[in-house]
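Input/output pair, single chain:
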Amino acid sequence: MGDGASRKYGFLQDLFFVVVTSCSMYYIAKSVLDRLPMGGDPEKEQHEQARIRAAANLRRLDRRRDDESGSEDDSGRDPNKARRTRKEELALDQYESQIAMEVVAPEDIPVGFDDIGGLEDIIEELKESVIYPLTMPHLYSHSSPLLAAPSGVLLYGPPGCGKTMLAKALAHESGACFINLHISTLTEKWYGDSNKLVRAVFSLARKLQPSIVFIDEIDAVLGQRRSGEHEASGMVKAEFMTLWDGLVSSNTQGLPARILVLGATNRIQDIDEAILRRMPKKFPVSLPSNSQRRRILKLILKDTKTDPENFDIEYLTRVMAGMSGSDIKEACRDAAMVPVREFIRAQREMGVAMAGVKADAVRGVRTEDFFGRKGGGQIIKDNHARHSGKSAKKQVEEQDDSGDEYEDIEDGEQVVEPMD
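Output:
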């Protein structure tokens, strides 16, 4: 009996030891593996950061809506708007959280239609065909279902003519959520994740509507499909077009989805035909005309000190023909640096400390400051040289004409005098 009890006790002791040892080894191995880069989700920290940043972006949208709801409550209009689901409380998956990091609140866009020089016809067309149907769908859908906002708008033209600025102003003026979609956002190393991100773009846009999905240089993302194209790229384009067609479906209230895909490009010929078909509104943003260049100059130089006696905006408007809005801005930036550069050099020659110098002592910008800069645009220099050459030639011709008349008179007088 004693031997049997001792053996039983020894067996239980060994069993307990084995169990404890196994559990200890399990937890030790699990702890070590979790600390290794290959343990668990390798992108867990990245996904968590994306979720936090997405929540912060959505919180800004809620703050703006709360301000609008407060003003509407004070004025006694539509107090039920505050009952809508807060965007911060929306349930987002990991792919939607990555896209939500690209969401920009309308008040964070410091560009409006008043900041754009020229393009009045395009701006008015965008207001009537995009902004009003996007922000007031009940008004347009009541009249006719054909008056809904278009599913896509394309801005195309030479570089630097204001396409991106026009897109920002459109988002700011419409008050819609602006999803600034980058190429890198849709590029993933895992096979199939890019398609899921494309699906997340449209699902998030539907949750945040009214919303604008902006794709700059859209020809690089949705270019022509070719036979030798990589399979992943073709799948992304197919997924994008399939989901894009789904935007025309109505919601539970019978209203069309208030989602707009806005693209900008300077290579419209490289965009796939199926993508162009889904963008019924196409606006050419060309080089500014004479009146538009004058308007751009006034906008850029409105807060810049100029020399009224030596500044000719009409001449600058003429010699800037062929320049884009971006080129004109850079020319104004370089010209504004000329008085500052001259003042600094003069103060250094006199040995004056720059710390005590007042900015009011700097002279204003002159017309000549636009032409003597190194590294500037060649167009304005060529135009200025051509205009200067014409003016000099005209002056020489006038002087020649006046000189010939004077010499003829002298010759006549000399001829007449001997006859007397």
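Residues 188 and 194 are 6 Å apart (CA to CA). The longest helix spans residues 378-419.
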